[in-house]
User: Which sequence fits this backbone?
């Protein structure tokens, strides 16, 4: 999958993309991430990418021209049609189901803004879908774009090894993960549950399922209420 990111701070993406699974996914060409700096497309003398809002009010608004020009430059780099996503707290809430949906695409074009927001004509003109990663306010869309790249990449074929695979995981099956233990079997007086040392795989599976259910009821009852809405 190709990710294009339009941002004023491409350097923010370098570290998350340079380690562990995201690094490997690029090396194996499961993903390609192309970062474009919106400021490179500012045409006025001061490279301005933002301006005062019409009608007054606090803060600054991202201007149309640099974003449109950056977008057109990005689109023409590859013939694959991309789904255009604009990072915005007003957007559709990003969740595992949305991540799975996006993982079917060939190309995602992510637009990350700063300041008070984008000129409305950017959303309309680029036919961009707005995406929010949760009900809180970030200083900009970059972290949200990274969250999307990370969660979508790990769903792509061949990105996770067998050992890390997606099958048993929380949210994939709408339940929280069961508790995990590794050696030693006792640490600071705390013992690993006997069932895990029993070697009885049927019993272990049953115990884990039960633990998942109990934890979900206790910590995230909302997930159980939403179970029938999941696909
Ligand atoms: Cl996508 N952007 C910003 N600025 N804040 C957010 C967000 C996005 N998602 C949640 N909060």
Assistant:
């Amino acid at each position: 999958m190709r990710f294009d990111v339009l941002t004023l701070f491409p350097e923010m993406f370098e570290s998350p993309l340079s380690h562990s699974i995201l690094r490997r996914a690029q090396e194996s060409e499961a993903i390609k991430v192309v970062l474009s700096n919106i400021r490179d497309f500012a045409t006025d003398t001061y490279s301005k990418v933002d301006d005062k809002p019409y009608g007054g009010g606090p803060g600054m608004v991202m201007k149309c021209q640099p974003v449109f020009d950056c977008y057109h430059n990005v689109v023409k780099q590859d013939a694959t049609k991309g789904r255009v996503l604009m990072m915005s707290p007003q957007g559709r809430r990003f969740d595992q189901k949305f991540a799975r949906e996006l993982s079917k695409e060939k190309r995602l074009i992510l637009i990350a803004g700063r300041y008070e927001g984008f000129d409305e004509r950017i959303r309309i003109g680029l036919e961009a879908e707005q995406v929010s990663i949760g009900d809180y306010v970030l200083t900009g869309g970059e972290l949200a774009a990274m969250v999307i790249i990370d969660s979508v990449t790990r769903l792509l074929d061949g990105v996770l090894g067998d050992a890390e695979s997606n099958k048993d995981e929380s949210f994939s099956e709408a339940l929280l993960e069961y508790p995990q233990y590794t050696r030693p079997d006792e640490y600071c007086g705390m013992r690993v549950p006997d069932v895990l040392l029993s070697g009885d795989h049927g019993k272990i599976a049953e115990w884990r399922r039960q633990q998942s259910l109990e934890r979900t009821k206790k910590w995230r009852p909302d997930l159980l209420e939403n179970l029938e809405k999941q696909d």
About this structure: Residues 170-230 form a domain with the Trp Operon Repressor; Chain A fold (CATH 1.10.1270.20). The chain has nine helices and nine strands.
